TrEMBL record:
Pfam families: adh_short_C2. This is SDR family oxidoreductase. The keyword Oxidoreductase applies. Belongs to the short-chain dehydrogenases/reductases (SDR) family. It comes from Croceibacterium soli. Residues 1-40 are annotated as: Disordered.
């Protein structure tokens, strides 16, 4: 049981040692996640510039490469997994597009501002912001959650979204889109991921409120709430080994989802196909029925 009761008096918390293998390298996963786009592009993001956070692996990689296939130039933000990020960049370039890599902790406002500044310097515009980066730390009881872990989880999962939106806002024009990644855990709860689930609830509230704030300027804000998806997040410490062994089997579909089964939801919300949608959340979760 954690005995840490002192408040955290810093605006930024360094990486914690709860799960030292996080965030994990996709190159080490077996089996490998399926991230490759499943269908030809149709130019739905032609001429657009996108930022995808957590774009080195998993859902972020699948989304970034799909965006590139649809014509977008893509900036990838990631923590420290240079090998995974390089694979993503190579895949973007193989689609005939351009990539920009930006390592760093998005829980620091200066890192977020630096990312946006690099994008504007390189491409002169920003059309789509995908807030996908996140972290989680499993605990059996609320008393096991340290103050540092609590603040770190909120810092990565929701504070970073505020920082990035603030940095991006001056460059987002009419027709721009913001897509935030929440989770099925926001809707059904998760006994072992109390702090993580709480951040995902905050993301839904942020998404709906930000939509109300920006829609008058023609900027749409929506969310995606994936279910269990095969990415490095859970196998490298984000879930207990016994849960990873049967990950996704409790969904109605009966299996774990793949990143390229989630990326099309982000694409739909990023392009004009969803021009009449804002403040909404899509649910690629294996058939779990949840409230909207």
């Amino acid at each position: 049981m954690a005995d840490d009761t002192k408040p955290v008096e810093r605006a930024y918390v360094e990486e914690i040692g709860e799960e030292p293998r996080l965030p994990g390298h996709e190159t080490e996963l077996d089996p490998k996640p399926e991230w490759q786009p499943r269908y030809p592009g149709s130019g739905r993001l032609a001429g657009k510039v996108a930022i995808v956070t957590g774009g080195d692996s998993g859902i972020g990689r699948a989304t970034a490469v799909l965006f590139a296939r649809e014509g977008a130039k893509v900036a990838i933000a990631y923590l420290e997994e240079d090998d995974d990020a390089r694979i993503t960049a190579d895949a973007i370039e193989a689609e005939g597009s351009e990539a920009l890599l930006h390592p760093g902790d998005l829980g620091e406002p200066d890192v977020c501002q630096g990312l946006v500044d690099k994008v504007i310097e390189k491409w002169g515009r920003l059309d789509v912001l995908v807030n996908n980066a996140g972290e989680q730390h499993p605990d059996k009881d609320v008393t096991d959650i340290t103050v540092e872990q609590l603040q770190r989880t909120f810092q990565t999962n929701i504070f970073s979204m505020f920082y990035l939106v603030k940095a991006a806002r001056p460059h987002l024009k009419k027709g721009a889109a913001i897509i935030n990644c929440t989770s099925v855990t926001m809707y059904k709860g998760s006994a072992g991921l109390l702090d993580y689930s709480a951040t995902k609830g905050a993301i839904v509230a942020f998404t709906r409120s930000l939509s109300e704030s920006l829609i008058k300027d023609g900027i749409r804000v929506n969310g995606v709430a994936p279910g269990p998806i095969w990415t490095p997040l859970n196998p490298f410490g984000g879930a207990p080994p016994e849960k990873v062994e049967h990950f996704g089997e409790d969904t109605p579909i009966g299996r774990v989802g793949q990143p390229n089964e989630v990326a099309p939801s982000f694409l739909f919300l990023a392009c004009e196909d969803s021009s009449y949608m804002s403040g909404q959340v899509l649910h690629p979760n294996g058939g779990t029925i949840v409230g909207s």
